[in-house]
Design brief:
The complex is a heterodimer of chains A (113) and B (113). Chain A is 0% helix and 53% strand. Chain A has 113 residues and is mainly β. Helix content of chain B is 0%, strand content 56%. The chains are: A mainly beta (113), B mainly beta (113).
């Protein structure tokens, strides 16, 4: 079974803090993704990566950066957290194929005070 | 830009009924369409993926269809059970092997015992 794990289920941070969200997958997938999910807005793509050290902006990259130093790990970074970044963050991974299923982690619920 | 719409936003039916969830998308150049299930506060579980060349996929009591020409997909659930209660999300991949998914906002399904 594919397993995607995220470092925290719940996280509370203060405005202006630097925040790291970690995601690890164990299936040697090339692609990894970060989404955020908000009531009324649904899931939106923040960033994705199709290889180590490669990254592409999604639909809402502003205020975020990412890092992929190893194939199995994809980090989402909030350089200076703001209250409007309070959200559920979901990581996913897939093979590099147009027909590949995306597998999701359990999510991190981040609250920025 | 791909847009995905799901109707209805919420649905409540008695146990045992067969039901259909609807998903429409604007860009017919879609590589695949994926249906997910999300339980409250949890990540997404992949249910079915339909490739652009396919018309339908089946898994147990679930059947998903894809009609690219009309921009529609349906998820059919047979003999519904209380354990089927969840939010169901459809998502399309229009960008090829490395792109993220564009999600609908989901249908919140309640199966009454």
């Amino acid at each position: 079974d594919v397993k995607v794990t995220q470092s925290s289920r719940y996280l509370v941070k203060r405005t202006g803090e630097k925040v790291f969200l970690e995601c690890v997958q164990d299936m040697d997938h090339e692609n990894m993704f970060w989404y955020r999910q908000d009531p009324g807005l649904g899931l939106r793509l923040i960033y994705f990566s199709y290889d180590v050290k490669m990254k592409e902006k999604g639909d809402i990259p502003e205020g975020y950066s990412v890092s992929r130093e190893k194939k199995e790990r994809f980090s989402l970074i909030l350089e200076s957290a703001s209250t409007n970044q309070t959200s559920m963050y979901l990581c996913a991974s897939s093979l590099r194929s147009s027909f590949a299923t995306q597998y999701f982690g359990p999510g991190t619920r981040l609250t920025v005070l | 830009k791909q847009e995905v719409t799901q109707i209805p936003a919420a649905l409540s039916v008695p146990e045992g009924e067969n039901l259909v969830l609807n998903c429409s998308f604007t860009d017919s150049a879609i590589y695949n369409l994926q249906w997910f299930r999300q339980d409250p506060g949890k990540g997404l579980t992949s249910l079915l993926l339909i490739q652009s060349s396919q018309r339908e996929q089946t898994s147990g009591r679930l059947n998903a269809s894809l009609d690219k020409s009309s921009g529609r997909s349906t998820l059919y659930i047979a003999a519904s059970q209380p354990g089927d209660s969840a939010t169901y999300l459809c998502a399309g991949n229009s960008g090829g092997g490395a792109d993220g998914l564009t999600f609908g906002k989901g249908t919140h399904l309640i199966i009454q015992p």
